[in-house]
Amino acid sequence: MSKYSLLSQSEHAKLRVITERGAAYGDNLMYAMTFPLEFRNIESSYPIFFAKDGESGQFYPLALFGFQRDENLYLKGSHWDATYMPMMVERNPFLIGFQQSPDVENGEKRPVVSINIESPRITEIETEVKSEALFTDSGEPSEYLQKSMENLQTIHRGHEQNKAFIAVLLENDLLEGFNLDITLKDGSNNRLEGFYTINEEKLAGLQAETLGKLHEQGFLQAIYMAVASFSRVSGLIAKKNASLD
Questions:
Q1: 230 SS3 class
Q2: Which of 16, 124, 189, 215 shows the greatest Cβ crowding within 10 Å of its Cβ?
Q3: Residue 128 gets which letter from DSSP?
Q4: Rounded to an integer, what distance in angstroms lies between the CA atom of residue 194 and that of residue 102?
Q5: What Rg do the C-alpha atoms of the chain give, in angstroms?
Q6: How many CB atoms lie within 10 A of CB 32?
């Protein structure tokens, strides 16, 4: 469950965040949203695909961790078996919220830090598993909280970047739906569906002027990284086969 509250020292001074990995803490994720600004790191470990939000109809890029709901093939007990942790996974139990500020004109809202007080990562006591305090004894944000806030700021930029990135992909008709049929070593046939990928044929057909514009916008490299990340599917299949032992 989720119950977000605006983070404050007066209300949350005693809270600690469990930083151990595990399904019990919500890490059994099939995928997580990602952003072009972290594609270089994502591509080193995960396939990058795209999904369409069922409510808003908006597309967004994602890092794929498994082939079915609640399956994370990178999660081995309390160990996340990858060289990079996606920002949207690492951010938990925090979230960017928006609050009306009297200092901002035109009714605009400013981003603020919220915390899911019902997250299984939240505790008020030191436990056997690794945890971090949110505030120091003097009431200042802890080093862990400071790093978490920096991560949230980057995610905020990432959300804005995604809007422009998706707009460019749609403008150039570069997204296409796909199905991936997988036969595992136990003989079972499986299908990954409902996701989108870069249309490589249309990408190859783009004119030099368009490619130059994509480069100037900082999106050309991200597009090719998404294409290159498809090679990570074979590693994901190997993890799936290993899980059958």
A1: helix
A2: 16
A3: S
A4: 43
A5: 20
A6: 21
User: For residue 93, is the peptide bond before it cis, meaning its omega torsion is within 30 degrees of 0?
Assistant: yes
Q: State the residue for tokens 């591509």.
A: 43
Contact status, residue 6 vs residue 99, Cβ threshold 8 Å: yes
Each residue's pLDDT tens digit, 65-111:
999 999 999 999 999 999 999 999 999 999 987 776 666 566 667 77
Tell me the sheet residues that pair with 123.
Answer: 16
Beta bridge partners of 98: 111
**Tokens found for residue 228:** 């290159």
Closest by CA to 92, choosing from 39, 148, 10, 50, is 148
Residues in contact with 186: Cβ distance below 8 Å, sequence separation at least 6, in sequence order: 244
Provide the 10 A C-beta neighbour count for residue 125.
Answer: 7
In this structure, the number of other CB atoms found within 10 A of the CB of residue 216 comes to 9
Task: Provide the 3-class DSSP secondary structure of residue 60.
Answer: strand
Whether residue 236 is predicted with pLDDT greater than 70 in this model: the reply is yes
